[in-house]
Give the backbone structure.
Amino acid sequence: MRRSRFVPSAPTLFCALVLGLALTACGGDDDTTPRHPMGPMSGDHMDGAPRGDHHRSTPVAEGARRIEVRATSFSFDPDLIRVAAGEDVAIVLRSDDVLHDFTVAGLDVHVAAGRGEVAEGGLRADEPGEYVFYCSVPGHRAAGMEGRLVVGAP
């Protein structure tokens, strides 16, 4: 009895190579850090741990009015905040999904909260006008995560 020997053709070898590379690319690695849906632009903050400059919050003045802000899915709720000029406000930021922060353009205001956390930071605008607040985590503002702060006359 004669045994035949299987010799794969060039297209078969090529398909096996591509399949092997695809399986390798899809396989796990030792990095267990979860990734953000927006990819590398997100800064990989899915674990909720503040990194870099995102950890600090502006100090809150004693007796400040508290305004609760929810950050989730690249939006703020509310996305419009009204305060009086010279009023001390505490922004109480709750993040439901990943690290988010609350930063106000033109004012030294920054509050950061990781996934499932609540953080508090102070806000005081002495001049009436409109300001933009946004999330400064890379990619979040570009995804539409911003709102308006309207500062009225005292």
Summary: The first strand starts at residue 65 and ends at 72. The longest helix spans residues 10-26. The radius of gyration is 25 Å. Confidence is low (pLDDT under 50) at residues 18-52.
